[in-house]
Amino acid sequence: MNKNNMIEAEAISKRYGETQALDRVDLEVAAGTILSVLGPNGAGKTTGVRILTTLTKPDSGRAWVAGHDVVAEAAAVRRKIGVTGQDATLDDALTGRQNLVMVGELSRLRRAEAKRRAVELLGLFELEDAADRIVKGYSGGMRRRLDLAASLVMRPPVLFLDEPTTGLDPTSRRRMWTMIRELVTDGATLWLTTQYLDEADALADRIAVIDHGRLIAQGTPLELKAAIGSQLLEVTLASPHAGAAEAIEALASGSVHITGGGLRLRAPVASEHGLVISALRALDEIGAQVDDIVVHRPSLDDVFATLTGVAPSPDQDEETEGVAA
Ligand SMILES: Nc1ncnc2c1ncn2[C@@H]1O[C@H](COP(=O)(O)OP(=O)(O)O)[C@@H](O)[C@H]1O
Ligand SMILES: [Mg+2]
User: Fold this and answer.
1) What spacing in Å lies between the alpha carbon of 127 and ligand 2's midpoint?
2) pLDDT at 83 over 60
3) pLDDT at 318 over 50
4) What residues are paired with 232 via a beta bridge?
5) Is 41 in the pocket of ligand 1 (CB under 6 A)?
């Protein structure tokens, strides 16, 4: 165990029946930084959070949080962590303020202290106006903010946020991002799971990509994006053409992936400036007929395609933001 790490997992594995939810995952998070664990539904993100927050035991491997073993010293770990998850702990029948006061009292704060902390957190999370309304009527974004506030009542140095923005509208997501950033400015160490590449990119110091329980890549957002390309060029041809890959390669910053029996070509590109026109010209010159051409930011599917070498299926939802010709 490295003393600079607030969180450290060493070859943790967990199996549920036939499903290998986590498969020998090694990860570490330095104090005061955000690790984003990025992966699709079912990747094993929540299983990892449950192990590190002592809610479930790993089948094998070891993990430490704030220097304490998550199995042997579970109680000590619990005193150091805050958790916000998909199964929220809020009481719908209470107001936002009452929820926060209750959490404080359950954690043995005196009532006056719990009330004071509630006021502070309601302010921090911009919930003052809704403070005395029943949580049942809160919007999704307000609920998430209150849930996050509840996890902060005892000022834990380590926080686990399990998909804190899934299902939120873009404005609420941005708002949540701002608040998450502030937590780290205040010195917290964060383990944040997400299905969104842009979220990991916006918030994380390091990103760990997991799929089917396996860690398939990790690095800084810059390192991962360098591997993926900042933009992707995708060309669909009317019919396969032997020279097309070479023509595209000349414009690309990495290798060209060919799928669909030679019809679909995709390549990372450094900049989209003038690219569609250049690509169309180059393909036209060799007599390749273009059906469709688009430049877009890599989606999570693209990240996985690049990292695993498996092309995403064409019917998947991609965050296409591109220029169609
Ligand atoms: N309690 C459980 N019983 C059976 N299977 C589970 C259980 N918890 C998780 N799984 C399975 O383990 C895999 C990983 O789940 P999970 O960690 O929840 O993924 P994620 O949070 O990334 O969506 C999934 O295939 C899921 O169905
Ligand atoms: Mg989950």
Assistant:
1) 26
2) yes
3) no
4) 268, 296
5) yes
CATH 3.40.50.300 domain range(s) in the chain:
5-225
Q: What is the CATH number of domain 229-308?
A: 3.30.70.100
CATH 3.30.70.100 positions along the chain are 229-308
Q: Strand pairing of 34-38 and 189-194? A: parallel
Output the CA 86–ligand 2 centroid distance in Å: 7
Q: Which ligand does the CA of 23 lie closest to?
A: 1
Tokens of 300: 């999570």
Ligand found nearest the CA of 209: 1
Q: Quick check: CB of 210 below 6 Å from ligand 1?
A: no
Q: Ligand 1 mean position to 243 CA, how many Å?
A: 45
Q: Tell me the C-alpha distance between 223 and 202, whole Å.
A: 14
Kindly tell me if the per-residue pLDDT of 180 is higher than 50: yes
- pLDDT of 311 reads 53
Work out the average pLDDT over 112-140: 95
> Considering only CA atoms, which residue is closest to atom 12 of ligand 1?
21
pLDDT confidence band for 270 (50 / 70 / 90): confident
pLDDT at position 314: 45
Q: pLDDT value at position 88?
A: 64
Helix/strand number for the chain, H first, E second: 11, 14
- Residue in 23, 37, 41, 47 to alter for ligand 1 test, most ligand atoms within 8 A of Cβ: 47
Residue 218 to residue 224: CA distance in whole angstroms: 7
Residue 45 Cβ < 6 Å to ligand 1: yes
Q: Which CATH superfamily is domain 5-225 in?
A: P-loop containing nucleotide triphosphate hydrolases (3.40.50.300)
Give residue-wise pLDDT tens across range 217-239.
999 988 887 666 678 899 999 99
Tokens in use for 318?
A: 């991609």
95 lines ligand 1 (CB under 6 A): no
* Cα distance between residue 276 and residue 105, in whole Å: 60
pLDDT of residue 100: 96
**Crossing angle of helices 111-124/96-106, nearest 10°?**
130
